[in-house]
Amino acid sequence: VADIIGDSLQLSQEAAKVDAEIIVFCGVKFMAETAKLLKPEAKVLLSVEDAGCPMADMINAEQLREFKSQYQNPIVICYVNSSVEVKAESDICCTSSNAVKIVKSIPNEQTILFVPDQNLGTYAAQQTGRNIIVWKGFCNIHHINIKVEDVDEIRKKYPGYTLLVHPECIPEVFKQADVVASTKGMADFTGDNDNVIIGTEIGLFEQLKAKYPEKNIVPLSEKAICKNMKKTTLKDVLKTLETERNEISIEKEIAAKAVDSINRMLELS
Questions:
Q1: Which site from 83, 116, 165, 268 is most exposed, i.e. has the minimal number of CB atoms within 10 Å?
Q2: pTM
Q3: CATH number of the domain enclosing 61
Q4: What would the pLDDT profile of 231-254 be if each residue is shown by its tens digit?
């Protein structure tokens, strides 16, 4: 029933372009907040009020201010999987699609702080050769539920398959991947190739298997399930459309600062 399906970067870009008075977001809160920032005149509704992101909750604005105070004039890169308050305290946002590109845009002499995902920050550091100071946040699904042992087992079970891994996974996992990519990157690769292993939240595997039933696609881990992303049902969507519940509201001062960090990202994307 969705009009738009995509990863964080796609949804951010589309939210800014849509011509609609009401946007219903079937996802977690930070995604709906981003849509509201980019389309402030629209009424943005979150289908399930308590659909949150544990990683986004691993840092707040006060903690980020304290983190910044330890360094001289740092540049803060903020993964979009974060609260609007944290975005407001950051210099530029990034997604898993463009994190490396964003890091490359920062002058070499600048100290870079990366919040909240330590694994994506570590991946960006490895790809760019930059020294990045990361906040110790993580996605439970990628950090805990996708293990090195899963890679070893799947390689034995499906020899010759291409292993795609999301950079939110731990370094010990993404270093063994054939391709490290965002959700969209994995989807695009699978569209052009067969015999692939999907190393991210199980929903992408399910989506790709439905889209390409003739292809050999397997999940790296069947335990990689985000319960928050799975909270939204068709009944929730209908109820939200009927009642216009769970409207996203952001303080003007915070919104102004947060949207600047997102727009800086979009200018480079």
A1: 268
A2: 0.94
A3: 3.40.50.10800
A4: 999 999 999 999 999 999 999 999
